């Protein structure tokens, strides 16, 4: 029996890999205790209890990025957050801490170090966040999802993924997936999506070019996002959905994907060996471009700029790719060697090593 404290949250990119590891730890040893440390404001406040885990609360204390009143208050607030985590570690007798980034992780790393509890860091993005940069200084193990992530002593472990992705047999599921979406399993499918909220740039580009995709002999499965106001033309071969709760079936049907390049998206697509066209979201610190870099370097994906991605880009670049089945087949073969479905097991192996070294 072991007590694990998993820290992270804020966004799905932090919460989902945390929950994948939590589920596998619980399945491996139901007698062990798996606790989650998070904030009241993050996505974890809803998702963690829904999954059946106890959520221990720590104050949300953002790192200051400019000198202002909030920056002046940061040291005291951060010390308080560290003290909160130390109390959680003592009261629950946590034996190891695993951080996935986000606001909860930074105080968790320092609290674990002061309590002499080993901790492990997992970084999902190719460009690490501040919390994990801090934690990597003293971590017993550092796992990264992508090659080239600049964290010293790190090893590439991949991304902990959902069971429905890890266990997906795309070929065996294709007929079921085609029936689910009302598509023809015998005809190739282009899957376009931009995350749960959609991507305006992708939506506008394909709103002006979907006919060209169909004219190339392909079907189009377009997930627009729940906030989209695109009107479904209800054309044969073009299936539009605001939201899909069975992305595993969408992946089973996809012969090529056009999407953003969030860490989870790239990891899932790579793990499944699907060729892709990535259009990295231009806002932020450039991590989406870096997330796609290893797949692009391997020949499994191509990268197109967000700022110039239009219907003309689809016609000039994507549609010719659809007509080049030989190139798509080469991309698919390359994709099989880029990703991994064993990210969860790899992270757990790192946790086990940290525990053995501490005992």
Segments where pLDDT lies below 50 for 5+ residues? none
N→C terminal distance: 14 Å
Beta-strand content bin: 15-25%
Mean pLDDT: 94
In short:
The protein starts with a strand and ends with a helix.
Give the topology, please.
Blueprint (H helix, E strand, L loop, with lengths): L2 E5 L4 H17 L4 E6 L5 H7 L3 E4 L11 H24 L3 E4 L5 H10 L4 E5 L6 H6 L5 E4 L10 E2 L6 H4 L3 H12 L7 E5 L6 H8 L2 H6 L3 E5 L14 E4 L5 H7 L2 E4 L3 H9 L4 E3 L8 H11 L3 E3 L7 H13 L1 H11 L7 H16 L1
Parallel strand pairs: 1-2, 1-4, 2-3, 4-5, 5-6, 6-7, 8-9, 8-11, 9-10, 11-12, 12-13
Helix pairs in contact: 1-15, 3-4, 7-10, 8-13
Task: Write structural notes for this entry.
This protein has 359 residues and is α/β, with parallel strands linked by helices. The chain contains 15 helices and 13 strands. The strands form two sheets. The chain has a seven-stranded parallel beta sheet, sandwiched between helices. A six-stranded parallel beta sheet has the order 10-9-8-11-12-13, sandwiched between helices. Strand 2, helix 2 and strand 3 form a beta-alpha-beta unit. Helix 1 crosses helix 15, helix 3 packs across helix 4 and helix 7 packs across helix 10. The model has no long low-confidence stretch (mean pLDDT 94).
What characteristics describe this protein?
cell cycle, elongated, 45% helix, 359 residues, single chain, 15 helices, six-stranded parallel beta sheet, Glyco_trans_28_C, seven-stranded parallel beta sheet, alpha/beta, peptidoglycan synthesis, UDP-N-acetylglucosamine--N-acetylmuramyl-(pentapeptide) pyrophosphoryl-undecaprenol N-acetylglucosamine transferase
